[in-house]
Amino acid sequence: MPVDVLLGLQWGDEGKGKIVDYLAKDYDIIARFQGGPNAGHTIVIGDHKHVLHTIPSGVFRKDVINVIGNGVVIDPIVLARELNSLVEIDVDTSNIYIAKKAHLILPTHRYLDAASEASKGKSKIGSTLRGIGPTYMDKTGRNGLRVGDILRDDFKERYNNLKQKHIELGKIYPALDFDIETEEQKWFESIESIKRLHHIDCSYYINQAIKDGKSILAEGAQGSMLDVDYGTYPYVTSSNTLTSGVCVGLGVAPQHIKDVYGITKSYCTRVGGGPFPTELDNEIGEELRKIGAEFGATTGRPRRTGWIDLPQLKYTIMLNGVNKLCITKLDCLNTFANIKVATHYKVSDGESQNLPYDLTDSNLTPIYKSIEGWESDTDQIRDYQSLPPKAKEYIEFLESYLEVEVKIISTGPERDSLIIR
Ligand code: GDP
Ligand code: IMO
Ligand code: MG
Fold it and tell me: How confident is the model at residue 348 (pLDDT cuts 50, 70, 90)?
């Protein structure tokens, strides 16, 4: 069986968690391949809303194995808290497997993240302060601690060596208030919960599962525009969020990858700093934020909002090889008489459909097409034909521009608010 992929095509928070939870009923294994607790994937089942940060979104489906792959960075404190909150609501956590090669986020990684951000002033990235950047830096700098190290006799010594390095490094920044002892105590307590999970050699595990005919869905975190290589650098996260990240993040060869689900909102959001060409810094943007409840699932920060940006989506569809498009939050446009869609950019020497080298220093203005809104409810609709004709026109316009079929449309946060085509 091949590996399918699901990932965000914008700047994150596209509704990946909800769609993975739905699709998970048809997969044997759901596997996170990158990112860490900077992610917040929301799943709404009945009256219950759950936000997952490290654990894959297949955990609410019985008998699905949830793999935290080696490309993920793990904060034991966050993971232990997540495990506890699942146990409290009687969710089975015995199907959560963790890669031995996944790197650990130390309390001092969080300190360095915060200190580095504070020192940047206005040009700060707006990181989630979860220690993501410093942990990936230690990974590529070959200093990191991994899940498999937890069982080594000299784990504490290795921890102390790395912590000491961080303390020295931290001296280049103005000091911040941070209670290392308390955080460290929580961290070591949480390590005990991590010890109780199934520890796997992720690449052998996944490749054996492929051989055994198991179906696997790789769940992306963040969004393609936050990819460290292809996103709006330096306003990005520190991992490869694209389909290509699945190969290194799980240890699978490219020929095993088949379908790629790309998720986009019916509009666009971004949280944190960095360029956002179609941003609406006005009442319309405020209305979108209100209707879409656009506040970060991890940090609670208000998300920046704007119209959908088709050149941007075309770029990330190309990067990921998306063959199945999912549009979420269609219901959030229900009340708009006019909806705008960016189709081109006006640049210094004419018009372009391509993203420039650096969005941060380019003089680029989006060119919009205006589309009449449908101005009626879509929340209860479960089949495509019953959508208002103008809503179908909107979807079909996106489809023809982006040259990918829209397979899933989401019309509300709840698990079953979906139209499958
Ligand atoms: P993720 O990080 O991609 O999993 O997305 P988040 O969970 O951070 O943010 C998506 C938010 O939109 C969550 O609050 C979801 O409950 C909500 N959501 C998902 N799909 C829909 C939808 O179709 N309509 C509405 N109104 N909300 C949705
Ligand atoms: P999910 O998986 C939205 C953003 C941060 C910041 C930048 C770098 O829920 O879609 P980091 O903490 O990674 O160093 O922050 O990336 N960011 C996200 N934005 N959704 C996410 O995850 C994000 N994870 C990181 O706001 O701008
Ligand atoms: Mg999120």
Answer: confident
Nearest-angstrom CA–CA distance, 261 and 312:
16
Q: Which CATH architecture has domain 3-102+198-261?
A: 3-Layer(aba) Sandwich (3.40)
Domain limits of the chain? 3-102+198-261, 105-194, 264-420
Distance 112 CA to ligand 2 centre (A): 17
Three-state helix/strand/coil letters over 336-385: CCEEEEEEEEEECCEEECCCCCCHHHCCCEEEEEEEECCCCCCCCCCCHH
Query: Given this model, what pLDDT does residue 169 score?
Result: 97
Quote the pLDDT of residue 16: 98
Q: Measured between alpha carbons, how far is 19 from 408 in angstroms, rounded to an integer?
A: 9
pLDDT digits (tens, 9 = 90+) for 327-339: 999 999 999 999 9
Out of 41, 50, 53, 109, which one is annotated catalytic? 41
| Per-residue pLDDT, 362 | 80
Does residue 311 have a cis peptide bond before it, meaning omega lies within 30 degrees of 0? no
Over residues 288-299, the mean pLDDT reads: 93
The reply to whether 13 belongs to the active site is: yes
Class (C level, CATH) for 105-194: mainly alpha
Write down the catalytic residue from 13, 138, 309, 331: 13
Q: Which CATH number fits domain 264-420: 3.40.50.11720, 3.90.170.10, 2.40.30.10, 2.30.39.10?
A: 3.90.170.10
Q: 13 alpha carbon to ligand 3 midpoint, in Å?
A: 4
